Amino acid sequence: MYEAHFGLSHRPFGETVDPATYVALASRDAVVRRLRYGLEHAQGPGLLFGPPGSGKTLVARVLAREIGGKSAHLAFPAMPAADLLAYLAEELGVGTESSRNPTVASSLRQIRECLADSARRGEPILLIVDEAHLIEDRATFEILRALLNIATSGPPDLMLLLVGAPEVLLELPSSLADRLTARCLLGPLTESETDSYVNGRLTAAGARSPLFTPEVLSALLRASDGLPRRLNRLADMAMLIAYAEGLPRPDMRAVNIASRELDPETIAA
After folding, report:
1. Sorting pLDDT into bands at 50, 70 and 90, what band is 269?
2. Position 267 pLDDT exceeds 80
3. In whole angstroms, how large is the CA radius of gyration of the chain?
């Protein structure tokens, strides 16, 4: 709606987990490097955790892109172990949706054969288990541990990345926690990272000059608590308000209005 007004090719702050929208930031790049080292050197599964809206899924997808090869993304792992295995087999292209009532044994056999084929080609598969804090059935964790035991020759054939909110640390059984190669916390953005993030997203959308002054960027950081998802929503709303009022750029008033409109407590009141 406001793109033409600001000379942009598309909305710069739309919600997406497309790695193409990733803005390189020191804290995020360090996490990607640490996880990649541990996973590629077969040191064990990795854990990426942080508060909701900190950008964990996007970082996980960037990691998958850098590692290359085949990957599977499990977005909702709170399912019985048998269903999880059947879903994973489908994601890897070795299971079929039409298969009726696949057993744990049949799904596991399909997955093992797929992992072995990839390992022989020198292309281990990466499994990303998102929202891992939602797993309540310990059998699901045991299935994931069992998948890590599949090895054609030497190191495991599967790379595993668990992604979730901080409470996942309390849910992990010791059988998995003891094997973690890295526990990486994805925290809020700093002030300098907020500047780089906002201007990076704007530049990718075609902005030829900054649209947010340093003062307004500081206000965005405070209102968003440094969380990218909230920052996206606030910046998007502030730009919409500025467009509606015919302003050349979002000002402090636009950010304050956006902050009030997106505040759950204000909405509830």
Report:
1. very low
2. no
3. 21
Say what the pTM is. Answer: 0.91
Residue 268 in this model has a pLDDT that exceeds 60: no
**What is the token pair recorded at 12?**
């710069």
CB count in 10 Å sphere of residue 96: 12
Q: Mean pLDDT score of the chain, rounded to an integer?
A: 91
Cβ atoms of 141 and 105 within 8 Å: the answer is no
Per the structure block, which two tokens stand in for 29?
A: 């790049």
- The residue extents of the domains of the chain are 26-185, 189-262
CB 48 within 8 A of CB 184: yes
Between these two residues, 237 and 79, which has the higher pLDDT value? 237
Neighbours of 134 (CB within 10 A): 17
125 - beta bridge partners?
A: 158
CATH C-level class of 26-185: alpha beta
Per CATH, the number for 189-262 is: 1.10.8
Per-residue pLDDT tens over the stretch 160-180? 999 999 999 999 999 899 999
